[in-house]
Amino acid sequence: MTSLELGIIGNGSIAGLIDGEGAYQWMCLPRVDGQPVLNALLGGDGELRCDLHNMKTASQEYVRNTAVLRTTLTSEEGCEVDIIDFCPRFNAKGRTFRPMSFVRRIIPRGGNPRVTLKITPSRGWSNEPMTTKRGTSHVRFTAEDNSFRMTTDAPISYIMSETQFTLDRPVNIIFTPDESLSDAPEQVARDWEERTVDYWQEWSRRLAVPFDYQEAVIRAAITLKMCVFEETGGIVAALTTSVPEHQGSERNWDYRFCWIRDAYFTVTALNRLSSVSTLEYYLRYLRNVAAHTDGGHIQPVYGVGLEATLEEHIVDTMPGYRGHQPVRRGNQAAEHVQHDVYGQVVLGAAQAFFDQRLRAPAGEVDFLALEKIGERAFEMHDQPDAGIWEYRTIASVHTSSALMCWAACDRLCKVAGFLGHDQKAKRWRERAEIIRKKIETEAWSEKKQAYAGAFGGEDLDASVLLMIEVGFVDGEDERFRKTVDAIDRELRVDNAVYRYRHADDFGKPETAFTACTFWHIDALAMTGRREEARKLFEYVLAHRTKLGLLSEDMVPETGELWGNFPQTYSMVGIINSATRLSRSWASVC
């Protein structure tokens, strides 16, 4: 049965998902939101796999501190095969080499293993086989709007006919755009592997990790790095589409796009580890968002190439994850009105004014662009919207949206002061105070003794926990502490926290949203309940996949993972909570 026990490989251009037996479940080309040419995750026919005759066991691990994946297959007879998968990424000729390429090396480790190689990519959403054309040492796979080349030193006749053969030497398979290699496949594959391992280990070495939970944090950071489309700086919310939030829910969404809010949290988490390059990439993306919108409406989500139109379609050519339909491409959320986005843009850019490590810190031109966005935030802070959870038929003045509009004004005040614009700082401070008073008046529920999810409402919403994350309150704030207590009572089930428990467009949610569990962990820690926070955090860590990854949702009673994968929100939570709960290096060393 298909599951989310998947390894991720990627390089900032493309990414693939591989199951525990070394079979590709998902790969989109020519970029992370492109056409799925390997689509078994959603029941499609696009496959890339290596089957070991009489396989008995399979194990999987990453090469330490890298995005290079090793799958080991063992047969009944004791034969052993290693499958090495990666997308090349390293520095060459003064730039980062991250081509639209992926590599598979299959290495015999013992006995005389017999393997069958199956490589049958599909024509994207049509799920029809690609046209193949054989060459001397390569095969071209073509479709109307996509093509790539497989170059290999494996017997092509055996691959084309899916004939089992004895693996008496390592074989190398390199997938590239329709271009020839500069050297023999073995030489290229080994060179790229060594340089890719070196790149990731050097990148990981520079992370400012907490003392505790280092393995979890490093894996989360590498995973987030693979969700950045570096050509533009856009950051996808997840690498998949249509993995449902729970069984039969029809909450099957396409997450292969750049949500402004998700991207902000990703940048913030990596900044906490002193990885500032993502901020530099993302700042370029935000500059283009600001230029395109020029103080007007900002969508909550864009394509990684800044595409504004993400028209949502139902795909009927694939049965879906575990047979759960629908399969969707595109996302209607691009058409939504979500006012928190203005705050997320300003929050995402604010550090760039202060951080002297950046090659090009933000300056006056960026401030003027952000002021236009701040004006929009102040204008819309008390207007109804679809909210952070993107309700499709429900509009309210959502507390989290007003909160982020406050954050926009608050950060603009600080940036203005830093740049020496005292009068502007005063004006933004006054606007932030207006929004603060409105939130404190309109969002507080006397009945629930908590901040509600919407102005004048009584339904609880875990997104209000972000009040402490963005500095609206501190850990001593009495109302916030009561809100944490109320969420603990009403939204927490066992060791997981729901977004909300009331019915939405699709009924009542049946799984907890893992990011909300992390927000609750952080709130517990920052209000002095560190031991409770630690126990909850370690429960979530124990329910990651074997490779240390998390999806969007979790069944509280069992810890089973559902939802798109890997979810950046969730991986961000690992980093944020670990840094808050860890002992300091000075206290231990």
TrEMBL record:
One of its GO terms (molecular function) is hydrolase activity, hydrolyzing O-glycosyl compounds. Residues 213-577 form the GH15-like domain. Keywords: Hydrolase. One of its GO terms (biological process) is carbohydrate metabolic process. Pfam families: Glyco_hydro_15 (PF00723), TREH_N (PF19291). The keyword Membrane does not apply. Residues 7-145 form the Trehalase-like N-terminal domain. The keyword Hydrolase applies. This is Glycoside hydrolase family 15 protein. It comes from Parvularcula maris.
